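lol forgot to send this yesterday, sorry. struct tokens for the thing we talked abt
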């Protein structure tokens, strides 16, 4: 009978293609028998051998063989690793031989990590940290992933959960003694403990979403009138010619996108069609897309031609059309009141400052309206120094400058929702009279403990596992 969870599984752990070395991993009860399939002995536990794998009397490859005895392995099971040369012929021959051997099967995506989790080698937040580590593209993402693997989220969540279970247990004890008077000092102690927990959860929720920003990255939309210099700004930020720069208005008709590491935050910059009156249907579609992109961006960078004396009117029109789009998008509205709650932060750039007139008009027009909030910059997109000023201004708005590295523990919406749910449940618990209705408060404490337990995978997570592990590649 097939027992999926106890099968011995194998997979290539390295990416496809030609390489110096490839790694094939095998995990499960039959792992120690794998070297024998190739006529070589299995290394002792925790040791490695350099061996020549043989097949049908011929040398297949000279490899390094590693063996780890469960539970002292990454999956908690017996694990054998074959570090072979990374040629198609070698990998295919080894894999074909494994495939033809009974008692082994190809691993599903993320199945090695799933086994680590099921065998208690890591908790669910650590698994997510590992997934983030594999996907990390910037040093900030790398640091955040390792912090999570090492328990930056797990440790406080487990401490909060233990504390609230303790309070709940003491409260439940009161249910049995409900006829007797509860000394006020005990009730006060339980309430103080609950308030302290609510404060700790609220402090972590009020982190400005920095962990999610570092993990998911941010989107900046470049919008503005045709010919204001949007593509020049994009190219300056990219440090290469990512968009066509031309004098013909309407050159950028679709959206061009570049990815930047902006002081640690992965940033996607979208260059959009110039916003202007047009009768061309293709260009009109481009403009529609640019307004939609702006209404959904984390930051809107409005580029204006400062040497055009009509820039204030152009600016007002662009603001207007974006505001209209934002107000129509349900993502920006509070469902209950229907009010716009996210107007999308904006940075205005008066470009072509090298033409002299810009700075004069900037001083007159912007003194009151923008200077106080530093939301408008006068630059020349053709000057490297000005592009640096712009990228710093962007970074100030997008990066977690006011957060010490490692101080943020929430990196996914899933964590945020669970901590928020626990926070709200504790608030509801406090609203009950602990003397008169301890069982109602106890129910809220149980709910809060459940919400926190889901973060680390201690309870109720079957429905989550599929989506978390399928995001891994085969072999991890
Ligand atoms: P877009 O339509 O907004 O993308 O504008 P482009 O980036 O294609 O630029 C339009 C024209 O303005 C091109 O001829 C650019 O060389 C020019 N341009 C862009 N930035 C500057 C600047 O800072 N100073 C000057 N003098 N010209 C600029």
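and heres what i got for the seq, position by position
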């Amino acid at each position: 009978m097939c027992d999926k969870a106890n099968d011995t599984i194998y997979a290539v752990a390295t990416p496809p293609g030609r390489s110096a070395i490839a790694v094939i991993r095998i995990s499960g009860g039959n792992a120690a028998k794998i070297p024998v399939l190739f006529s070589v002995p299995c290394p002792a536990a925790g040791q490695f051998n350099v061996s020549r794998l043989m097949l049908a009397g011929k040398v297949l490859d000279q490899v390094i063989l590693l063996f780890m005895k469960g539970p002292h392995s990454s999956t908690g099971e017996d694990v054998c690793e074959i570090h072979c040369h990374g040629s198609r012929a070698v990998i295919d021959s080894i894999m074909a031989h494994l495939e033809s051997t009974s008692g082994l099967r190809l691993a599903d995506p993320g199945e090695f990590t799933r086994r680590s989790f099921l065998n208690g080698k890591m908790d669910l937040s650590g698994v997510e940290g590992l997934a983030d580590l594999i996907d990390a593209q910037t040093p900030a993402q790398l640091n955040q992933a390792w912090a999570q693997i090492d328990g930056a989220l797990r440790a406080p969540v487990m401490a909060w959960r233990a504390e609230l279970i303790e309070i709940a247990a003491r409260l439940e004890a009161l249910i049995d003694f409900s006829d007797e008077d509860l000394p006020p000092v005990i009730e006060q102690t339980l309430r103080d403990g609950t308030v302290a927990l609510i404060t700790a959860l609220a402090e972590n929720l009020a982190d400005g979403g920095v962990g999610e920003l570092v993990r998911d990255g941010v989107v900046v939309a470049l919008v503005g009138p045709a010919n204001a210099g949007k593509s020049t700004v994009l190219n300056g930020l990219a440090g290469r010619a990512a968009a066509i720069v031309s004098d013909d208005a309407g050159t950028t008709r679709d959206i061009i996108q570049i990815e930047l590491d902006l002081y640690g935050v992965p940033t996607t910059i979208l260059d959009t069609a110039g916003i202007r009156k047009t009768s061309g249907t293709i260009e009109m579609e481009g403009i529609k897309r640019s307004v939609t992109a702006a209404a959904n961006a984390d930051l809107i960078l409005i580029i204006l031609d400062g040497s055009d004396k009509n820039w204030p009117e152009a600016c007002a029109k662009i603001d207007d059309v974006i505001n209209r789009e934002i107000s129509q998008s349900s993502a920006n509205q509070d469902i209950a009141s229907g009010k716009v709650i996210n107007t999308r932060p904006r940075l205005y750039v008066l470009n072509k400052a090298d033409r002299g007139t810009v700075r004069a008009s900037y001083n007159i027009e912007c003194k009151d309206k923008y200077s106080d909030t530093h939301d408008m910059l006068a630059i020349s997109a053709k000057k490297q120094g000005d592009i640096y000023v712009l990228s710093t201004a962007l970074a100030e708005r997008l990066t977690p400058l006011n957060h010490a590295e490692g101080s943020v523990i929430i990196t996914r919406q899933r964590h945020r929702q669970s901590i928020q749910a626990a926070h709200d449940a504790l608030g509801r618990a406090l609203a009950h009279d602990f003397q008169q209705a301890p069982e109602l408060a106890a129910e809220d404490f149980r709910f809060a403990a459940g919400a926190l337990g889901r973060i680390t995978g201690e309870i109720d997570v079957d429905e989550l596992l599929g989506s978390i592990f399928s995001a891994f590649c085969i072999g991890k």
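The two ends are 26 Å apart (CA to CA). anyway ping me if u want another try
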